[in-house]
Amino acid sequence: MGLIIMSDALTMVFVILSFYFFFRAYYNKKSLVPVFVFATAALMTRYASLFITFPIILFALYLIFTNSKFQQLLIASLLSLIVTIPFFIFQWGALFEVSSNYFLNAWSFTNYFKSSYTTQDGTASFIFPNLIFTFYVFFHPGFIFIGSILSLITLRNYTSLNKFHHIILLTSCGLYIFFLAGIPFQNPRILGLVFPLILIIMFPAFVSLMKIKNIRRFLIPIGIGCITLQLIFFTMTFKPLFSRTIIEKELVTMIQPYQGKTLYSFDVDLALQGRGLVFDYKNLYLQRYYNFQKNDLILFDPIRYQVQWKNKTPMLNWEFIEKNYKLKILANHPKGWKLYQIR
Known about the structure:
Elements: H1 8-28, H2 33-45, H3 50-66, H4 70-90, H5 102-105, E1 116-119, E2 122-125, H6 130-133, H7 136-139, H8 147-156, H9 164-181, H10 188-191, H11 195-210, H12 213-217, H13 219-255, E3 262-265, H14 269-274, E4 280-283, E5 297-300, H15 302-305, H16 313-324, E6 327-332, E7 338-342
Helix pairs in contact: 1-2, 1-3, 2-3, 2-4, 3-9, 8-11, 9-11
Keywords: Membrane, Transmembrane, Transmembrane helix
Protein name: Glycosyltransferase RgtA/B/C/D-like domain-containing protein
Organism: Aquimarina litoralis
């Protein structure tokens, strides 16, 4: 977990700033201090960002030692330490959770070629193997509508990628992509961290595309059409994420009048806690429960999880509750969630 909550958008900002100040320092002989500070901020926000910033951190250290800029290293270390202070204060326990993260420990080269997984999150199946999925960021319409065309132009003109900044960007993106391919799950959201870097890599291809006579001739209508299609594909790709946020807000409104009691839930419990609702939270995933009390609340959607979580702790808990207790429905959500009360 990152500082307070893992934010992809905030991490992306820190990653972009890390690369900006790195190239600024390399080409214009400026200070490397901001590189370490923003890379640290990215790491504190989302651990996986280390795989993106690791190459520039190494090269920045190389520049510092070869040019004897030890004062910059000292300043960078002090400022980076200051950046981590809120993390140590508010989430000391999370320091020890990184190495025990299930998906990190489940990383394997064999996952590169798998499209179906049975993990602690249940069983999930996808269309493409992980290795193909992780390259979505180059050509998936949800990220960039003309990505396939730009990727082909980039591959055709691969000799133009021998500049220093291209090599660094490709190394960073490649390291992150191949790391993600070994994790047994797929989520387009996590690919977004390297998307700005991918755009920089493919920018020369975009320039070449704009030089085509017929495109220049009909630039405005083609541009409007591409932007429209990009918005449509972006909405289609990320609609589930937006819908999830809306559902969480609606669930908060739905259960807000029943605060102050024990609430058994799953999947949405962290989101509910983050929105400040006061319950004695019990997660149906973490352990089996056998002793429920009268008036305890349960927020659950059994139909949603009956396949993915079959014979897993959340469904086993639910089946035990259904079999041994009488339930009263206090509230319904249109998407299937129900708030139950034990009678």
